[in-house]
Amino acid sequence: xxxxxxxxxxxxxxxTSGRFADVWNPATGExxxxxxxxxxxxxxxxxxxxxxxxxxxxxxxxxxxxxVMMKFVSLLNRDMDKLAEALSxxxxxxxxxxxxxxxxxxxxxxxxxxxxxxxxxxxTDSAGPGIDMxxxxxxxxxxxxxxxxxxxxxxxxxxxAPALACGNAFILKPSERDPSVPMxxxxxxxxxxxxxxxxxxxxxxxxxxxxxLDNPTISGVGFVGSTPIAQYIYERGxxxxxxxxxFGGAKNHMIIMPDADLDQAADALVGAxxxxxxxxxxxxxxxxxxxxxxxxxxxxxxxPKIEALKVGPYTxxxxxxxxxxxxxxxxxxxxxxxxxxxxxxxxxxVDGRDFSLQGYEDGFFIxxxxxxxVTPDMEIxxxxxxxxxxxxxxxxxxxxxxxxxxDHEYGNGTAIFTRDGDTAxxxxxxxxxxxxxxxxxxxxxxxxxxxxxxxxxxxxxxxQHGPDAFRFYTRTKTVTARWPSGIKEGGEFTIPVME
Length: 499
Ligand code: NAD
Description:
This protein is α/β, with parallel strands linked by helices. It is built from 16 helices and 23 strands. It has a seven-stranded mixed beta sheet, with helices on both faces.
């Protein structure tokens, strides 16, 4: 069986801890590889070596660093199909969706080609007599990224590209569910010209994560994953004096006003609710039609579309809408939550529980589910299900729908479907959620804007990618320089103020 180790100092190395995790092929249910789980000693050695490599990389001029990003983009395009295939084989998502996963990461690398401009800093000429003042953006040194299973190409690239473009060394701890693509990305970075040791991929579980959080050389940690782990990492990392940004779970509401184009809204809901088997932090998991008439018409349009969804393995190429979920544990948890919805009295309008695919009976496939008449006290409403399950909560007014989304503990993304500009503007202004779509179901910002939720979907104060990433991965040093001319006046004993 294939053993996946780590990427250290420019080569693949075997793990030495003796601990491994299973990597499944979710379509067939087979264990296709074992991934090594690093010990604290392995993590610490990788960091020590990265810290040495960072010195020269940090001193490399930003334009040369940007050229590595430029080359990396062309290599990603060259290997797009290979990366997508490896990604689908471990994650289960369809091939077109896997290409999208690589593409949305690649776009952040493209943004990082502009690093020299973003790192220019600030300068004040003649801030006082003979005094100039300038602020430099310097690398933080060694940064680390801990990433989730659901975007094994995109999120590692969101983390490592800005960190590296800023002149840092980077330790990537990818999800142990689908580690192959992160390893391939490291190989491509080397081919693009990144010096060995500057990017280390350390595979592992809690032991490796805790070693990152406790390692004194690592000065910044970026995390994406579920909320309880996000909170844990934020608290432990901050207690150890690091800067930390953690992006957590979600429960994204889509509000459908009575004046919305319901065909457009139904199509949007099907794509945003069931795409990638619902394993997206920006998936829509709650539909909130306003008024019973809107709800009845919406459900009538949704049911045939959901029943027509094609669920299958990635090897079916374009001919499948979504694939299996990632592990047998994920499947079990999703089906348990579906049962809890039924037990709590929600109406299961589309029931995917008996779904089975001929030839793939052992795969982790789940048929689509649609609930109606869900209420806020139910577990299926409160928890992130992360599966192909859409819940409908009926609201009787716009204000009730708005309050529902605002009262939920998560605040990652949301959408409103309406033909009324006034309602849309009011919603965008008042909602306490980080990313808002207006007639757009999955409003993931592009690379040059920033990505981040509010409330329990985030811990920390800067977003991912866009200009915020360059703030997170650099620290500011401000120099006040005096080159006096003329007669020297002796020491100054009061705090200087500029007149
Ligand atoms: P997860 O929290 O289980 O794992 C994320 C990372 O944390 C992995 O690298 C994992 O190895 C590590 N980890 C897991 N348990 C740990 C523990 N006890 N101690 C220390 N580290 C631990 O998340 P997942 O299942 O891989 O990903 C799905 C979750 O990620 C969902 O909640 C989803 O909403 C969220 N997500 C959020 C965003 C966002 O930007 N807000 C984006 C994608 C995914």
